[in-house]
Amino acid sequence: MTKRTLSNKTRTSILKVSGFRARMATAQGRKIIRNRRKKGRKNLAIPS
User: Fold this and answer.
1) Phi and psi torsions of 19, nearest 5°
2) Three-class SS string for the chain?
3) What distance in Å separates the CA atoms of residue 27 and residue 34, rounded to the nearest whole number?
4) For residues 15 and 46, is the Cβ–Cβ distance under 8 A?
5) How many CA atoms lie within 13 A of 12 on its CB side?
6) How many angstroms separate the first and last alpha carbons of the chain?
7) Who's near 36: CB < 8 A, 6+ residues apart?
8) pTM above 0.85, yes or no
9) What is the architecture of the domain spanning 11-48?
10) Can you tell me the distance from the alpha carbon of 22 to that of 12, in angstroms, rounded to the nearest whole number?
11) How far is the C-alpha of 25 from the C-alpha of 46, rounded, in Å?
């Protein structure tokens, strides 16, 4: 079986990838936030 993404799950390592500030730092991340807002998500990203 292949290794899974984020197998070293510490809170800080997850936030570096999928936290709100990490999303807003890149153009693609901002696109993700925009799409989640459009869909009406309660949580846009993992709260830091």
Assistant:
1) -75, 165
2) CCCCCCCCCCHHHHHHHHEHHHHHCCHHHHHHHHHHHHHCCCCCCECC
3) 11
4) yes
5) 0
6) 32
7) 44, 45
8) no
9) Orthogonal Bundle (1.10)
10) 11
11) 15
Torsion 22-24-28-34 (CA) sign: positive
* Residue 46: φ, ψ to 5°: -70, 125
Q: What is the number of alpha carbons within 13 Å of residue 15 lying toward its C-beta?
A: 6
Residue 41 vs residues 9, 25, 36: alpha-carbon distances, Å = 24, 20, 6
Distance between CA atoms of residues 48 and 15, nearest Å: 7
pLDDT digits (tens, 9 = 90+) for 15-42: 999 999 999 999 999 999 999 999 999 9
